[in-house]
Amino acid sequence: MKRERFETLLGIATDHALAVARSMVVEELSSEVRYQPLSERGIPVGLGLKKMDLIDQLWRQGEIPEWIDLSVMSVVEATTIIRVEWAERLVEDEFQCVYAKRGQGPFGIKSPVLPPNWISVEVSGRFTLSRRKDM
């Protein structure tokens, strides 16, 4: 996959992740985002990354992870933090990606982590994301 295509798809997927979260949470989510990569065990790796830094980490000479999941994680001051998890298996063609049929290349959009016993916005209402003071 060309780097420019990967960057475009990341932008579209980021907007979609923000839209999903905005429909579920009470916080006002800024379009100013940082990405929080997680290890295979779900542990944050490093500090929140800017878009181009994330691309540098995930796009490897035309190869991309088979899937990359994005979900809004928290709000730090006026910045929305997006959780990023991905497959270690790399592919060259976006049509080999898990989410290819959705037209999102490798990107899958997930909801923020749901509170225990939460059913839906209509039944349970909107919920609060975790808040952190530093990133």
Give an account of the 3D structure:
- This protein is an alpha/beta fold and 135 residues long.
- The chain has one domain (3-129).
- It is built from three helices and seven strands.
- It has helices spanning 3-22, 51-58, 121-124; strands at 33-37, 64-65, 68-76, 79-86, 90-91, 107-109, 130-131.
- The strands form two sheets. Strands 1, 3, 4, 6 and 7 form a five-stranded mixed β-sheet that branches. A two-stranded antiparallel ribbon has the order 2-5.
- A hairpin with a 2-residue loop joins strand 3 (68-76) and strand 4 (79-86).
- The longest helix is centred in the first third of the chain and has 20 residues, at 3-22.
- It is globular, with a radius of gyration of 15 Å.
- The N and C termini lie far apart (31 Å).
- The mean pLDDT is 91.
Number of strands: 7
Q: Alpha-carbon distance between the termini?
A: 31 Å
Summarize model confidence as the mean pLDDT: 91
Strand content: 15-25%
Enumerate how many helices there are, as a single number. 3
Oligomer: single chain
Q: What are the SSEs and their pairings?
A:
Blueprint: H1 3-22, E1 33-37, H2 51-58, E2 64-65, E3 68-76, E4 79-86, E5 90-91, E6 107-109, H3 121-124, E7 130-131
Parallel strand pairs: 1-4, 3-6, 3-7
Antiparallel strand pairs: 2-5, 3-4
